[in-house]
Records
---
Amino acid sequence: MVDGNALWSPEITKAMEKRQVFDGKEIDTFTDMPENLYEALKKTSSLYPKKIALVDDRENVCTYWQLLTYSQELAAYLYKERKIRKQSHVGILLYNSVEFCVAFLSLIRLGAVAVPLPSKFKRDEVLSLAKLAEVGFVVCDEAYANWFEGMYPKEQVLVISGSGICCGYEKVYKNWASRAKDVAEVNKFSSGGSDDISLIMFTSGTTSKSKALQIRNYNIMHAVEAYRRILHITEKDISVIATPIYHITGLVALLGLFVYTGGTLHLHKFFDAKRVIADARTYGFTFIHASPTVFYLLLQAGEHTPAIPGLVSFACGSGNMPKDKMMSLHRWLPNSQFHTVYGLTETSSPAAIFPDDAAVSGRIGSSGLPIPGIRFKIVDEDNKELPCGQVGEIAVSGSVVLDSYYKQETDNLTDGWLYTGDLGYFDEENYLYVVDRKKDMINRGGEKIWCYDVENAIAGMEEILDSAVVGIPDEMYGEVAAAIVRLKKGSGLTVEKIQQYLYGRMAKYKVPVKIRMVETVPKTPNGKTDKIRIRKMLMED
């Protein structure tokens, strides 16, 4: 077993204590954390009231005082007019915007449970996830307003529209006298406690394979404090959320971290590598946390342009960054440090972090050291712990790890240990190396794709008798979906027609980029689909 408490300097581990949390669970955590992100916002607002907190594509420029005020006002409106209470499940379907951040923070203020819904998904996929999490109320962009007709009464949907600083909420709550009165009423009761569930997120997919996981306030706060200490993020830092904010990286590793520290975040509605580089020069970005795919695209767009001296820190999760790309990034930006991160949605983002610049380290390729408050073990197929250097399944336990899924029993969460399905090992200095995945899941640049989801969608085409979906290597995304299909005799289906059919039924990134027609789908001797052989067939094409 590898214990993160023993691996870091006293500066990183100071002021930690054992504490009992939900259901008698004991954790090691930091003593000086706020109860939740709303309390963190209150503190930051008192320290830096006029400092810019958020800038988005609607030209909203929001100071910390404004962010606190908007969050209080929306919380009051939701409480008074829409009857949102502690532990109400509220879906958020908004683009990267000030409005998204205000909605999220207002729900934490009320002790409600935020359920971020993926804006990349199709309507049926979103509704399936909302049903899984038992969402009772939705805050959505006007582009999605008609998605909830027939499933939710109008009074259970709040549509945000318009332009200008937080105009969506200005239109919702027009009466200033009512605002002040209702805020005062809500401020009489406390925000969510550290043990309260504040967030429900999804592992992947829209089928029965998808799981809704519950994250508590103490999970989030321990995660952001670990990031703050290890990455040395302060109020002077400036960063960007250019990929969907509803991922755990956007919500915790960026929004949560910057609300906690007082830095400034730019919110891009859609990712554009050239724009990120241009804004880094214009606005002085100091830090970027993203997936390997984002860094690959930033390299493509900027590698042969002048360096950006102020951009000094990177964090990279959601997959392994190729060593040569990491070194190329360092050559382009020699003042930067590249921190690889290992984590999952189930670990509230970080579980291990590389402590210094992985790009110039002899341990390049490692995901770093377990963070304080976290324990790791590597186990074999019989759940026996393996020694240093041996590859097995990665299991993790501690302060950032969820304690349950929402109304679902699973075999990967046992006695406080999360069995990740990832394969890896520790070296003699307790650095973690992730080598493969045990689960049949595709990781496309940080976006998770379950093969079952795609296969079930393909099965909806009458001309297709059988199919199988696997992940194949891709230089840009690390891995992409590919498929083989067995057609009915005489079918006129083409690859393009199959892809077009799927584009209308699922997020674009899930659609196989390569599809091969076959006479039979290979099976193993016991009758199961032989995905090892299928993957080899598709890679040989």
---
Amino acid sequence: MANSICQSTPKNPLPELGVSLPDMGDVRDHVSRLLARTVVSTALESLRNDRELAQWTRSGLALHRERSTSRCLFCEQLVSRERLRALEQHFSAQYAALMEDVEDWVAKIDGLIKATEGIRSHVPHRAEIYCDLTSEFRAARSVLDDAVTSVRDALKSMNQALERKRDEPFVPNAGTVKLFDDGGSALEPVNVVIRKHNEMCRDFQGRVERARKNIALDAISRSLDEFVRHKAALDTATAGEERCEREMEALTQQIEQLQREVTEHRRPADELNDDLYHYLGHRELQLRVQGAGYSIVRSGRTAKAVSEGERTAIALLYFLKSLQDKRFDLSNGIVVLDDPVSSLDANALYLASSFIQERTKDAGQVFVLTHSFAFLRRMRDWIRHEKKHEAEFFMVVSTLEGDERASAIHALDPILRDFESEYHYLFACCHRAAKGSDAHDLKRNYNLPNMARRVLEVFLDFRFPQRPSKKRRSLWRQLKQSDFDPVRRRRIISFLNTYSHGGGARDPERDITGLTEAPAVMMDVLDLIRSEDPHHYAGMEIAVGETVG
């Protein structure tokens, strides 16, 4: 291609096609309306079915009017007034107007056919186009030729229909019009090629120079292939040697560092013990250096029993301390904390969250998984104040697939994200289920019994506080203090006792199809809350974003 460009001669710019194909939609509409027209007159049967006789008679009748004679100009016989009246009615003004319109449109369409066939004469010859564009020009010319042929054939079919109409003016729709998309865009591909050709004309010298440069570079590359291969092999070997030297040096430094850390890991132990003191509030539990690791001692002696909360504290603090390891790039690293506050009391939870926030604030990315709503609030508030627009919240939702439990990850419910208590979220879930339309969605209903029980426990503990006693706390005893409908009270407690306890979905004593009653029971729970404290209920609806009924 470069050689052909170098050897080519400049060509002249070409004008774009200034012609266009007929507006076939407009022509088709006019012809269709013309074909649909009929002549309302008392037609003579002999003339209706004989086109040549009708034309001959029509011409003679016109001459008869012009010469004001009552005799036939052909046979010189007297023509009766009745016969003249019948002929006038046959060739009415409507008939004349229709024939005139038909003739006009036949002539117009003949002109359009000639103009359409003449479009090809405006297309430049292939030899006038640069050879680079030959394939594209052929394709564009083929599209245009097809469009011209189709338009011409459609116009001819319209003229044939009009000729049939001229023969049968008393018959509606005597001819049919061929439907065709006028292909008005068929000229554009040719114009695109012409524009490209003209651009090449303007940049002819530049194209020649670029082609010469490419030829020169190609010749150089072929002659230097072997040199390039050897040079690449040398560069690869040199880079490999340097990489090995850097890796060896890095490994040597790591070995020296590890040796120092093995012999000097007392300082991290002291720092961990300080963290434990601030975390637990006493120095009873400490870490003691033992060999290359640590042991846990209580009051100076090896700890025999370490509580779940203490284990959680040690593991968490040790993990957070490990983030300061020089081998870990915290700013570009990913930190994952899986339920770091399990088995911690409220005070320890606040300390744990403070340690986590302080030690992970510079991390590249942090994943925190938790079951604790209080811890969620702490992390949420921290992110809002310290890391705006840098966090996403998700929740794992337990569902029922057939008779198996399953889990799915969803965006965190706005109630959990925006409000300060778990009660808001559970109330919102019960409210949505009660107001929902699909009661047979067992997957959605699976967790509703536990949610409803928790909502009632919180509400009734506030509404009907129980005195401390040795008796087990009873939801039913609290429910009976309410003035709510006894039947609906009974349905609530029966449903909750059945579906919020037990061994799980595989328990043969439980019929999970009963979960279809969950929305109705949720409505009972909401009605009970509303009947006991309407102001509280209305406020909760507003708080969780629902419409107060």
---
Amino acid sequence: LQEYRPVEYRDIVILLRTTKKWSDTFLEELAVLGIPAFADTGLGFFKTPEVQVILSLLQIIDNPLQDIPLLAVLRSPLVSFTSDELVELRLADRKAALYQALQVLAAGNQGQGSHQGNQGQGNQGQGNQAQGNQGQGDHSQAAGKAAAFLEALQRWRELALYLSTDQLLWQLYNETGYYGIVGAMPAGEQRQANLRILFERARQFEETSYQGLFNFINFIDKLKSNKGDMGSAKILGENENVVRIMSIHKSKGLEFPVVILAGCGKKFNLQDLNKSILLHQELGFGPDVVDSKLRLSYPSLPKQAIREKIKTETLSEEMRILYVALTRAREKLIITGTVRDIPKAAAKWLKTATVSEDKLSAYEMLKGWRYLDWLGPALLRHQACGSLRESACSTSESENGKVFSGLVFADPSAWSVRFWKKSDVLSSKIAKEYTESEFSRWLAELLNSPGEIPIGKDTVETGYEFASEISRRLSWEYPYARISRIPAKLSVTELKRRFEAEPAEGSGAPASLPALVRKPKFLEEKKGLSAAEVGTIMHFALQHLDFQQEDLEAQIEEMIAKDFLTEQQARSIDVAKIRGFRESSLGKRMLAVEKVNREIPFNIEIPCREVYKELAEEAYKNETLLLQGVIDCYFEEEDGIVLLDYKTDYAAPGRVDLLRERYRTQISYYARALEKLTGKKVKDKLIYLFSNGEVLEY
């Protein structure tokens, strides 16, 4: 990679047989060389450590009597319990739940964990032990950590009672500093993106009827139990200038200017051949023969036949995968691989390549254990690989002496083969002589001492000027960072909430709602409908009822017959209140007009500064966002439009004025959108309260 620096990094891809074990190693090595790289390991969203820690924290906020999630949080950077401190926690009360033991430890081991009311005499010795440890517990570092964590946990549990899940998550990110902690870890940008995705999913979940921390945790548990996933955050675009690391399988059908096929010395995975019973779709099954008297087991003939068949098919599949890897490069293909014993490997390649036929022996190919066992013999017969033949003949104990006696083909492709020893590859001063802490000190001295340091073939001047340039680059901030955190679209409801109480930075309505896991019908019938669901059904009925007809009940029955409503939903509709609205003065005004427009969706463009007051600078004056909403009802009279909004909220006596102010922003934007849609003036802005029949005028 250092030799191909003139090439754009985005033109280079590293192909691996599998990325699960090797990708992290490659990323670390490339980071030492200063080469940007990205590996899509395919790790599930819920399997990422940062998401697991936050989900565990949410679980114990909901119910702290869960040992595994609590232990995960205590061991994480959120609390940073050491192994010795976890031992001290367990010794505080050996039989109690970890949360109760934590309370004992935080209280200085004064016997609170002895469970006097529950355990009785069975735990009496524990209480004595706790008292015996009192002097140590009062002054231990673990006790201080436990007390601080319990205090924070109690505060978070209180916040969870009235904060939505997304607001609670953002509070946890800010208060614990965990968002910044994961950002300082390797692949920090990806980790932070995963935490943001979790926040977004929580916010989308809160927009549904299943709200609250308990329901969110259940939703996540159902996803994981059904082997579902939300998908890790994607932070890499197609045009990012980084070296890509991917598996050969994912590269199928793609082409790249420069391809590095790495890990060709890794042995094939043939562990399935060692099972006690082998199965084959055509040959059947082959078990071991077990002699119970002699206490022996050995493979049967059918098993040996099936073993050879499966091995042949596995190697054939590996050869097809190798073909895919060798045909991905457009301009340059680089193949790397390692072997433990070069003379032994070279002798094997020479034996396979020293044949008089054009094709290599299929029998010898089946004896290969790695890609190099197939590539080595083929390269030995290539005209451009004379140095490889000389090296192989000189390092191996060839039966034909020091001269290659096999066929050599005049293929026009250009190859260059090189050998390195492990000591040659690991000769970098930084990689070999410096540990991480030593390297940090060396870099600090470098930045503050004039001179030069060799890096590869170049030299870099050091000193205060170099340090100031690094500081300038690292302290640079994107001038329009605030606008990048603002959503492109808001709903009127979300806007109303924002004006009521300023939410977390950058919050906005999600563009779409996630697919819901529906409750079983018997659970819905047992628990009934929530207030939000009743309000939605009421709006649905108001949208479709024909107020010109007297029999409202018959219309609702017709909705049930047409499967627009269920029996339970229909029973939640208060027909008396709808009839009261129909017979009110406002209802009579609506019946007097020729046409009534109901449930009108709209989208209007508004300036960002109108919503986000902090964007008052001149640079943001032309920035806009899209506002969307649905107008419940409007009708036209001779002198203008009457805007009408229904509310099913309960209006307590004396609190009508609070409701009026609560919906002032919402109704003003409805009127503004309606005037833009119709080009006519809205003369009356009204809200009808179904709870008490009052009309709010604006």
